[in-house]
Amino acid sequence: MLCKDRYLSVSGATALGDVIGFPLLSVGLALLVASALSENGWLRLRVPGAKLVATLAYSLYLTHKALIHLVDLWFPWAERAGWLPWMAVYATCCLVAASLLYLCVERPFLMLRERGAERS
Hints:
This protein has helices at residues 13-37, 50-74, 76-81, 83-119. The longest helix has 37 residues, at 83-119. It is mainly α.
């Protein structure tokens, strides 16, 4: 509720929501992460695919914005077909690109770093 209609005005209740709402949201999300990492937290559950997304997170971060534009260029039918087909094509392209980037760039350099750490 604190962040609702934040683009309507830069003063009044919306400004208060920006000043108080976003830090409050950040603290709440940090507490959820802390609970998930805690040994006895109430948020300890297994999410299928979470390990894959966590592994590919940096590669996804680097590629997702460019892939939005590429999906629109390469698959114009997907956008006309509706939100769900477009999102399926976009998610598939993001996962493929992030996997390739992880396997071809990130993983070899992580292995190189580990070998360097073992030597020293």
